[in-house]
Structure formats: C-alpha cells, structure tokens
Amino acid sequence: MTIPISHTFKTLILAFLFFLGIIINTCFYIEPKDVEEIRVELSNKPLESNRPSDKEINRQYCGTDECKFLFGYNFVEQETQSNKHFISFIQIAQLINRAVVLTNVGGSGISSLNNFPFEFYYNIYKLKKKFPKVKFISQSKFQKWTKERYYKPDIIHVLLESSKSNPNFTIQYNTAYIDKLVKERRIDMFDLKLNDSAIFKQIGIGITAGRNEVEKNKLKNFLSDELKNDAEVMLITQEIIRHPMFEKLTPMPYASHVTKAASKLAEKLKPYIAIHWRMEEGQVELMPQCAESLVTYLKNLSLKSGISNFYLATDYPVSVSATVTIQ
Ligand SMILES: *[C@@H]1O[C@H](CO)[C@@H](O)[C@H](O)[C@H]1NC(C)=O
Ligand SMILES: *[C@@H]1O[C@H](CO)[C@@H](O)[C@H](O)[C@H]1NC(C)=O
Ligand SMILES: *[C@@H]1O[C@H](CO)[C@@H](O)[C@H](O)[C@H]1NC(C)=O
C-alpha cells in the first residue's frame, strides 16, 4: 500500500531541503584565503591513493618539488635566426634559473606546432655540454608533465622586442591574449592554467645591433630582475630582434645525422661551387635577369676554376623532386 503524499507536503519537503542547503552552505562557507591554503596543502597530497601528488610528479620530471620552465613556443624566422634566438632564450633561462623546453622543429623552423622533436635538427648532447648549468626537457615530456598535473601549472607570458630607435628598456603589461595563443599557436595542447589572471608582459630591450659588453651586461641585469616570476611556466616569444641578445655564441650544434648527410653530400660533389642564393628580399621583376646573370657568372667561374659541380641553396620554393642543371 502506498501512502499518498499531498502536493503541499511535497512542496514543504522541497522548501525544507532548500533551506537546509543554504544553512549547510553558510555553515561551511570558507574564506577565499583559506581555500587557497587548503588548495596548496592538497596539492602536496595524493588525491586518490593510486595518484601521485603534484610534488611527486614534479620530482619525477624536474628532480625537485617545484618545476620552473621557460618555453619559447614559436620562433618566427628561419633556422639560422631561430637558432640564434633559441640560444638567447637558453641564456635567459640560465639567468632566471628555469629549465628550457626543447621546442619541436620542422620546415626549417622551431615551433611547438611542428611535428618533429628538437633532436631531429639539433644535437642535444652537445647543447647540454655548451650549457652545463641549464636543464632541458623535450616538448613531449613537458606536455606530459602538464597533463599529469592535478593542479595545472600557471603561466606568465613574455614578449621581447627590440627597437630601431629607442635605446631604453621598456615594460608594458598587456591584456591577456589567451584566445589568440589558442587559435594561432594551439597552446591548449598543453594542459596549462590558461586564464585571465596570467600576466602578459611586453619588454623592450632597446637597440640590439652593435651593443658592447657593458650594455649587454646591463640588459642581463635588467632581464634577471624583470623576468623573476613565480609562475611555473614562462611562455616566451620575441619580435623584430635580429641579433643575439647577449654574447655571440656559435650556433646550436646540429644533429649528427644532419652533419653526416651534409659531409656525405660534400664528399660526393667535391670539388664543387656552393651558391647560397637568397631571394627573400629580392625584387620579383628583376629575378629573370638576376637568374641569367647568376648563370653567366657561374659559367665563367666554372671555366676559370675547372670546377663543374654546383650546389645551389636557395629559399625559392623549388619542389623536392625538381633538379636544376646549368648548361
Ligand atoms: C630614453 O631615456 C632617456 C633618459 O630617461 C630619455 O631622456 C629619453 O627621452 C628616452 N628615449 C626615448 C626614445 O624614449
Ligand atoms: C585564474 O586563476 C586565479 C589564480 O588561481 C584565480 O584567482 C582566478 O579566479 C582564475 N580566473 C578564472 C577566470 O578562472
Ligand atoms: C669572367 O671573370 C673575369 C674575371 O673575374 C671577368 O673579368 C669577366 O668579365 C667575366 N666574364 C663574364 C662573362 O662574366
């Protein structure tokens, strides 16, 4: 037999539960500050018995309770320039004691959107010898670290730029442009705490060309101060900078499979004339004429030197299968 419950009674029960809810809520309301403290405490404890704490995850990836990374996620220019900039970023990481994320490579560039690991282009072993004080992590390991973390790592975004005319250092805080980073750089493939509270700092480093040692040290001191930050991940990028920011170093060493392939090719071609024909800033209308002049010049050089092999390196988008014969 069922006991009929009147509509009014039901409403009464619902109302009671509702108010009980409010009372419980009020009784257990915690000040925001306490939430933060509890949060920090929790982050050190496993949440489920089989789940490692964030501290343990950090130790596994960084060897310390805390991880601090510097992640140059995008280098706009081609390899020779990107190579220099990457070195500058390693030098910055050393200044502010952060481990460097070894960004992916591909298409003659360095960017987190590329498909190949850093070691496809560069020799990590030699790079570590060049910077014995700096720690490195591969992009894929870094990504894994972000995914494993319970509390997602927080970020600061830094944009460095140089000036053609203003020698002064400048600092500007921008409104966060997470959406742009997600849309253009797919930064959400890393499990970071991407929210509106992240600092977006734009730093002008003055005129980089022809800077002397004293000025370079001044920049180092300035950046050490300005880039001090508690965020676990520093996303960093640069604009307009065309020179090494600090002391000029030899390029990042290339992967041995690259240098071996180059040597093999050189052995096969020897003796040969190598041409680096940079068309990037050439004028399109003049190109046919330039090309003819180049051929004339090379023919002459070939006649004089008796060398008939040529190696042409150019940024013209020649399809991979195309071959060029100079007759
Ligand atoms: C650079 O700083 C100096 C000294 O503070 C100032 O006089 C000068 O106007 C600044 N230059 C520019 C381009 O802002
Ligand atoms: C972003 O993170 C900060 C720090 O934890 C927090 O106070 C804030 O509420 C978050 N903002 C959003 C929109 O999630
Ligand atoms: C070939 O090279 C010589 C010596 O550099 C030069 O004098 C001559 O004009 C060149 N000829 C052509 C066709 O470029």
Helices, strands, pairings?
Elements: H1 7-27, H2 32-43, H3 54-62, E1 69-72, H4 79-95, E2 99-102, E3 105-106, E4 109-110, H5 124-130, E5 136-138, H6 139-148, E6 155-161, E7 169-174, H7 178-185, E8 199-205, H8 213-226, E9 233-239, H9 256-269, E10 272-277, H10 287-305, E11 309-314
Parallel strand pairs: 1-2, 1-9, 2-5, 6-8, 6-9, 10-11
Antiparallel strand pairs: 3-4, 7-8
Helix pairs in contact: 3-6
Residues 166, 168 line the site of one 2-acetamido-2-deoxy-beta-D-glucopyranose.
Characterise this structure.
There is one protein chain. The chain is an alpha/beta fold and about 325 residues long. Among the domains are: about 65-240, Rossmann fold, CATH 3.40.50; about 270-315, no CATH class. Helix content is about 40%, strand content about 15%. The protein has helices spanning about 5-25, 30-45, 55-60, 80-95, 125-130, 140-150, 180-185, 215-225, 255-270, 285-305; strands spanning about 70, 100, 105, 110, 135-140, 155-160, 170-175, 200-205, 235-240, 270-275, 310-315. The strands form three sheets. Strands 5-2-1-9-6-8-7 form a seven-stranded mixed β-sheet. The chain has a two-stranded antiparallel ribbon with strand order 3-4. Helix 3 (about 55-60) packs antiparallel against helix 6. The longest helix has 21 residues, at about 5-25. The protein starts with 6 loop residues before the first helix and ends in a 13-residue tail after the last strand. One 2-acetamido-2-deoxy-beta-D-glucopyranose binds next to loops. One 2-acetamido-2-deoxy-beta-D-glucopyranose binds near residues 296, 297 and 300.
